[in-house]
# Entry
Amino acid sequence: MIITHASAADLDGILALEQNGFDPAEQWSHALWADEIAAPDHLVLTNSDADGQLQGVATFTVAEDMADLQRVVVHPRARGRGVGSSLVRAGLEWAEALGANRMLLEVRTDNLAAVALYRRLGFDQISCRRDYYGPGRDAYVMLRPLGEDEDVWALSR
Ligand SMILES: CC(C)(COP(=O)(O)OP(=O)(O)OC[C@H]1O[C@@H](n2cnc3c(N)ncnc32)[C@H](O)[C@@H]1OP(=O)(O)O)[C@@H](O)C(=O)NCCC(=O)NCCS
# Structure
């Protein structure tokens, strides 16, 4: 499993992941992903197989002590093999190294695979945003402490 920083050359592959991962209304555009890759304060990571085929992508930001997991998507053929977990773990390490003390994310409450992945990696649900993704489509806000806060959190569990 090879994790690298995304470049503009990955955009077509990333768009294919989007199309396989989300309903059309929820897909990010080519322009949006191009902006993610170009933004200096964003981390876009890709995961490829031994043949160089893109299997997954994830993007993160850090602003002062707060990190955000913006998106993670894995190709259906590569799911259930730890690709999503590896990408999120790499983003957590990057955010902690930059001094963030927590990572936040929003996820659809009915996205059971993603909610389970995040819980397994130590994210806890801290609130629910009604209609966040449109009428009847709610979001959990989930948070994971990092660094020293992570140690306090681990002791309290
Ligand atoms: C969510 C997603 C990224 C998970 O990627 P993945 O590579 O399959 O995840 P992993 O193999 O690392 O799984 C890690 C954990 O997540 C949970 N999980 C993953 N897929 C699951 C599923 N279909 N049902 C229930 N739990 C699941 C499990 O707890 C799993 O741990 P386990 O294998 O020890 O049981 C993938 O399903 C996906 O791309 N979905 C479409 C896009 C999306 O919804 N992205 C998230 C919102 S931005």
Q: What stands out?
A: Residues 2-155 form a domain with the Aminopeptidase fold (CATH 3.40.630.30).
